[in-house]
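pasting for the record
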Amino acid sequence: MTKMATSDGFPTAIVVSFCCFYFVVFLLSIVGNSFVLSVCYKTLRRRQSSLKWFIANLAIADLTFTVLSILDLIAFLWTWIGGQASCKLQSFLIEACYTTSIMTLFLITFERRKAVVAPFSARMTASEANCKKLIAVWLVSLVIGSPLLYAYQIKTDISGMMTCTNSAFGDLGRQIYYSIHAVCIFIVPLTYMIYAQSTIFLTLRSGVFPRQNVFSAVCSKRHHRVAKPLAALTVAFAICWAPFIIVRTLMYFHLMEGGYYWRASQLLIFLNTALDPILYGIYGDNLKPFLQRLFKCGNFAMPVRVESLTIDRTFKQIKQDSSTLAKSQPKKDTVADLNIIELSNGFSNAVSRKSTGCVIEPEHRH
């Protein structure tokens, strides 16, 4: 990621606008991602949740990216500070952080699609497997960013101002590295996100779920609620990252000058760190119950009771439909239908004893 040049040559109004936008987004990102982390920590102390692990990982990556960007702002307004070591380390870590953020969004999309299309296998996923996935994401991101430890170095101009640039790569090195990066870390994930979103919405719209998973009927409403913020995240990802990837590629192939377009594209990817906790953490209904508990906004037990009653009614309907099907089909299918009725009975009774509603992901109580 090429560093922001000093603000020399930019009108004062542009520099002030840039700083105001930066500080607003910085505050939103720090507060939003910190809150998401605290909520995920409290949730994971009570029960294991793969989705909360992914959201927490996304928040960590976005939060680290936000803090590291302070050095870029100082370099934009004045000069680079910290010398060669900070230049190499910050460039390496900031690349690893936003690569991790993108790959985590990819993982969330993959898990949500599996929960809708193949919910039975999604329920069988162990929390240890999810932790291994997140560790693998960070390791891959660190490997991807490692060439930047060589590429970035400090340059001092005739006025004594220092800048941190990736000039050690050279033109050809930048073109090869960032072209591969654009394909693997932007185009491929975005293509899969669009495909996954299409699959999720088509499955939900058609109402076709695997026969072996009777829980899908109970969780259909929850799937719809999860699909909306996931679609919003995909749109935000495309809008915030596409200009940056396009402008960076054109710059390194000498097809355009950076200027205002480059600065604006950098602000957009920075804005994405503030949008993630808002879109998935709050808009996605994942943190609303905790907001209600935190601020004591009304009676929290009522929605759970309604959800539980809805689940009970849904399973009664499943039993009725299964009984009707058993009467109308040959005897060889009766055993399978009776198994469905028995399974729905057991799950319905279990749900009625719980104080929480339908969960679309595995829970492993401590």
